[in-house]
């Protein structure tokens, strides 16, 4: 039995890691406030505010095989390192491909230039700073995982699940999509990412890895979502200039089309995964992921208010305007 401390563990990825560890018969402790949700059944929650001076008192004198850090907030990252780094044989930091300075070069690997962390309020800058301070404290015991877009059941960002949910909701009616020609899409199922993080910890794997899925065509992703959803209506494609002119946003957030990026940033979805594959990473099929996402979306409500995407009413209005051109 291994003993793993997850710094966090009550939100999406952290809970999936904890759940898989528990199911494998491992000992799992999650150090968190618990505001993001409950821990996986069988895991131990140490409820604490990581900003408190005594935040790590309950865990600092235990022997951990692996510590998994999910945060990039400077105070939380440094506090954990000061308390635990000196006695932990393996440390995993979950970072992001957002750390890279440029998204203009397809197939760029882990040695590509990073953003300079001048603004800790910026997500990418905070992730770079977390990598640097952790590397200084942990040295050659450190594993840095840089996932791209994480998808799968339970995702609340709607950056992937929007499409299969919208196609299922529309059924026989049209759905507005961006011009997918020549556009890439790259993502990793949360369950596959969690499984790799766990296996890497057991193996003592160190170094930096782009934890990303296979590079796909956006058109193929939309087609898979359409097939799984049983949608037989028309996909109405709009070009970038028209969408932007009509106030539709790239990528995520209100009034957006998820997975749609400016063509200048297309390499964000084309990161090299060679090192990740060589480490033993496995990936389930896109149809399995989309099927499970749709099942989860049906439970939560296909027509619910979303953090990303268009409302159905707004979408139909835009389709009407597009047809009048």
Automatic annotation (TrEMBL):
Residue runs in coiled coils: none
Gene3D superfamilies in alphabetical order: NAD(P)-binding Rossmann-like Domain
InterPro entries: Epimerase_deHydtase, NAD(P)-bd_dom_sf, NAD(P)-dependent_oxidoreduct
Pfam families: Epimerase
Domain NAD-dependent epimerase/dehydratase: 5-200
PANTHER family: NAD(P)-BINDING DOMAIN-CONTAINING PROTEIN-RELATED, PROTEIN YEEZ
Protein name: NAD-dependent epimerase/dehydratase family protein
